[in-house]
């Protein structure tokens, strides 16, 4: 430790990190939440995230518009999600194995197609400068909220409403809890699941766009480093509730920012430990949330 | 390249491997000497060759080697430090007839290069890193490396002139000797301008962690650092993030000035074309392989980026003067008395450690003025 520790900047950095680094977690965990509510686990969202990041960047480079890039990410993620839904609807197909396959496909495809986009610079997504009132550059930076974050909040609210207040949501939850019951009720199981997995993939694609077009705002092959997989674990912690996905994502984004912020402030002792914070948190949360309260019935392992 | 290799069936590949082994059994040096005035050279990179960083520095030099008369150059990128690199090397040798291979990533050497080198004694393997030892490793392998801490010292001098807050930031991957040496040289360069300057270091934990690198750059700027540099595989994220936050940057590995033209002061760059040329010429003339070669600015192993507009005329003059001293061999970076950031004396008064000194390759301390 050093004499001039500026610890006051740490909470601000954690707050800023929670929002800017938490956004991809938010979208992927929302996507996974929706998929799992329909009774399927899609581990391929990591692939959708990477593919979304690449498509967003590539689309923005080629078209010159970050919004078209975002659209490309939604389409790419949605297609990967749809593919998962289609393959899993075949008899005796294991959704977890298909998910791992799609994860590898998405990552490999993104690396292959993304080769020409490593060097060029894409126009980034704009941000809301909510801190413009402050003369402090730290506050201004911390309150620089990317446009995708409010979109994530809206997605959260919409998903909550859709799952609890609409016919579609009720039907999806029914499919997720008991396929047999849903069949007995005459619900269109395949259509419901396909729409949920495709939407889930599209949400993960938006998460990718947030990585490549806002923060850190560049495309390269180490961009995701497993964030999509951690987001899948977050859903368990969030007990399959959209609003809890938001809290979990913010917690993780903030935890990731803790290590660098403490080191910059001069607390250099146990930086390995602080850098491991998100992973330790994953393990701890999984241990606490292990009773799987709220888990859709179709997610049980013995099927 | 890799596409065409895919079209070769496993059977043909195995046949070629067997045939190749027989040839090399028949006469270990026949392949290398048969080359004459033609040489096929293979370059293997661990990441994408346009990463604005470590791999790009190698690929830029490879592009220059490719232009030499009689040279056929092969390249393969994104080759993991696993058995994958053995396969790449074997197919470069068997299918394309490579006689000299540059596996450019540190983790390729042991055991991958050593294994393949034992199998093909007629092929030369020039590894970029620092592990070759006489008597331990085969004569057809070797290592080359550059003293890029000289470039980081010059970065420090530039940063010392440009900084207004007297605080510098360094985004580092892992606390290994080579990285610590760069942090120390950068800090000492800056403190040669103004001894009140301090450097804050953030270790991200790995060579390519874009989100963490962006967090690190942001945190350093939050803490008042106004000149940043880094030692990660691709400095792109650090350079762009720092420039967006209004800080200045010094480059590393390759020239990143295109990413932040207004914020870029100068940069420490590899100039691999020098060791590459030495090794290619030795292979073409049939001379014994240079097994352990090192060099800095003076030997042409490293170079500096052109000055950016953010560096004042006085700053540019100071960096140029320091560079001239280095080129003349009149500047020793690591000399006593030198204390580390815990107050311990690490180099006693009167002791000068030349760049070639092995003590520097085992550095485990951060110099006074570094917080990290």
From TrEMBL, chain A:
Keyword annotations: Cell membrane, Membrane, Transmembrane, Transmembrane helix
Cellular component terms per the entry's GO annotation: plasma membrane
InterPro entries: ABC_transp_permease
Localization annotation: Cell inner membrane
One GO molecular-function entry: transmembrane transporter activity
TM helices/strands, residue ranges: 12-31, 43-62, 68-89, 96-118, 143-163, 192-216, 245-265, 271-290
Membrane topology type: Multi-pass membrane protein
Official protein name in the record: Nucleoside ABC transporter membrane protein
Automatic annotation (TrEMBL), chain B:
Pfam families found in the cross-reference section: Bmp
Matches recorded under CDD domains: PBP1_BMP-like (cd19963)
Residue span(s) of domain ABC transporter substrate-binding protein PnrA-like: 39-305
Superkingdom of the source species: Bacteria
PROSITE patterns linked to this entry: TAT
Keyword Signal: yes
Keywords per UniProt: Signal
GO cellular component: plasma membrane
Protein name, entry field: Nucleoside-binding protein
Source species: Plasticicumulans lactativorans
